[in-house]
Design a protein that fits this description.
binds flavin mononucleotide; about 20% helix; 9 strands
Length: about 190
């Protein structure tokens, strides 16, 4: 097997491993969207990966700014860093909102109560409020599953992965083009 193919296999393996391990460095990543002329980045939790479809997934609030950004421009960059293995992944692709209701419900039903709670907030993320906790929904009639209407699953369809490995023996950098199924060594 070519060295680069082994590296690509390891990338998918580590992304997959991070799903059930909150201490894994790839469990949290930053996703950068484009807001007009400005990039905007934030951390999110990696929720799923699909090597065959070349996709990765995270959950978010439908009302959040990142959803507005991707409606205008769905090109994104996802950034991961494994501080122990000294591996940076820069994943470029396009993002799409999951629209299949059955898939969405399935993911929602598997979510923890603590995660579901976030989707009950009274105001959209980013809304100005008078006091820091004014977003909390104190309506006792509200059911935890009411948050489903604000729940979104975002899928990143990967075009390219820029893999950088820092090493005392000499850094190495590979660019994987997942669309054309090829890779090139590049200068780090
Ligand atoms: C460690 C960590 C994990 C987070 N995970 C998520 C997540 O999975 N989904 C999400 O929408 N926001 C998550 N957030 C909050 C986002 O970073 C961000 O503040 C929020 O989504 C609003 O972003 P936006 O206004 O750019 O849409 C997380 C924040 C931190 C610090």
């Amino acid at each position: 097997m070519k060295h680069s193919q082994k590296i690509l296999g390891d990338i998918w393996k580590e992304l997959e491993l991070s799903l059930e391990n909150s201490k894994h460095p790839f469990h949290i990543f930053t996703i950068t969207t484009i807001n007009g002329n400005f990039p905007d980045s934030r951390y999110v939790v990696l929720r799923n990966v699909n090597e065959t479809k070349k996709t990765i997934y995270f959950n978010t609030d439908k009302r959040s700014n990142k959803i507005k950004h991707i409606k205008n421009n769905n090109n994104v960059c996802a950034l991961f860093y494994d501080i122990v293995k000294k591996i940076q992944l820069r994943i470029y692709g396009s993002i799409k909102e999951e629209t299949n209701l059955n898939i969405l419900k399935n993911i929602w039903n598997k979510s923890r109560e603590m995660s579901k709670q976030c989707y009950l907030n009274k105001y959209a993320p980013g809304t100005i409020i008078e006091n820091s906790k004014d977003y909390v929904n104190n309506n006792h009639k509200i059911d935890i599953n009411d948050g489903f209407s604000n729940f979104a699953v975002l899928k990143i369809e990967i075009d390219r992965i820029d893999w950088l490995n820092l090493s005392h023996q000499g850094h190495e950098r590979l660019m994987f083009d997942l669309k054309q199924n090829k890779s090139d060594w590049i200068s780090p």
